[in-house]
Every structure is written in structure tokens, then in C-alpha cells.
């Protein structure tokens, strides 16, 4: 426990389990008798986000070297869902450019609020409703969560042809979880072949969210299966349409994902801290 420099109340810091790095410098204020109140104190946001970006970047670099891969082949996608636009602006000031959003209206509000930062790269990574594809088609550079041909066709039809083709990752339910979106692995080859022929889209690769309850061995196997599936799809596509992207790995397992071939790691908690709620 420590004292919040803004409120003077007791606070708890959130740490990573393995590395001991501070993920967040936020606290829940408490009254003297221990009764929790509704305000959250946040301090040193700018320095903590900058430090966390540096820490995660070092983890990515080390994991890339340890895997025998070329430096720079893995990119960091900062998952900024539920975070205020000010946190994204702070991350951008530290050099982060790619941000992932799950909720459409929240994302559109942030894109507008940060429109002065013209070099940001917006990725949609959440479930897609087929009746809300138009803003996704035109406000994002990447979509990681396409799992149906109907959605892909709507994105293709609604993408402004004056824009570069929309980068697409096919979401695969690699562990066949009932609660997860994504096509089943056996559906992926045919679906990828169909999407690859849509002119306003550029199919880049595959995305998966493995079952987090798995141990490291099983988790590595899920990542490996996704990489093998990408290789299988590439055998069916012409060379000019070959896939080059594996979007997999998050704050707690990015090293395992990189070891199995990840090219995008989607990191939120290790950058912005655990999402806190009052009450």
C-alpha cells in the first residue's frame, strides 16, 4: 500500500506477475474507516504509459531475438478499448502509432477526437455486426476480426475505392470455444480463398485468441496450429496473394506467440494498466 499523491488516500499499485513491472499507477480512494468511495485517482499517467511502452517493446525485441527471427518483424498493437483518448495521445507521444479498438462507437469517438494525429493507424479487433460495417470499412486501416464471408463482402462493397485496400485478418476460433467468435479451422481455407478475391480488401493473415485457461504448452500448441493453418492457406493462394500476418499474443503470452510466428501482438494491460472499476 502507498499514498496517492493527489488524494492522500491509501492505494494499491498493479504489478505484472512475472517481471514485476508496474502496469498501472492508479488507486481506489478509501475513506478513513475503509469505506470505498466512487473516485479513482490516477497519477503519473504520462510517465507510466511511456515506461510501459518501453518495457513491452524490450520484451518484444528480446522474444524476437530468442526465437531466431529478424528484428522488426513483430509489431505492437496497443489495445486501447475503454481507455480515454488522452491515454492514446500519451502513447502516441512516445512513438506508438497502431491502436486496436473493440467497440465501434467508442472507437469512432476517439478517431474524431484524435483527428489531428494524422499518422495513427486504427485497427478494429472486436466482433463485427453486419449492419454496422460501413464505418469500419472507411475509418480503419486494419480489421482483425472477419469471420464470415457476408461481413467481408460488405466491407469490400462499402470501402471507398479511393482508399487503399482494407487490410484483413481472418479470425479463427482455434480452440473451438463456444463463447468465442471466429471460423473453425477447417473452414478457413475456403473462406480465405473467397476473401482474397475481393478487390477492395487485402487479406493479410489470421487472428486468434486462444483459450486463456490453457497452460503454456497448450497455448504454444494453439499458436503453432494457427501458424500451420496460415502455411496451408498459402499453399492454395497464388504467390502475389500470400499471407504474411499472424495476429496473436497478448500481455501475458506475447513471448510464446512470437516464438510461434506472431507478427502482431495485441497488448493492452501491460501498456495502460488493468481496467479498474469503483464500487
Automatic annotation (TrEMBL):
InterPro entries: Ala_racemase_N, PLP-binding_barrel, PyrdxlP_homeostasis. Its cofactor is pyridoxal 5'-phosphate. CDD domains: PLPDE_III_Yggs_like. GO terms for molecular function: pyridoxal phosphate binding. Residues 73-275 form the Alanine racemase N-terminal domain. The modification N6-(pyridoxal phosphate)lysine is found at residue 81. It comes from the Bacteria. This is Pyridoxal phosphate homeostasis protein. PANTHER family: PROLINE SYNTHETASE CO-TRANSCRIBED BACTERIAL HOMOLOG PROTEIN, PYRIDOXAL PHOSPHATE HOMEOSTASIS PROTEIN. Pyridoxal 5'-phosphate (PLP)-binding protein, which is involved in PLP homeostasis. The keyword Ribosomal protein does not apply. Belongs to the pyridoxal phosphate-binding protein YggS/PROSC family. The keyword Protein transport does not apply. Keywords: Pyridoxal phosphate. Gene3D superfamilies: Alanine racemase.
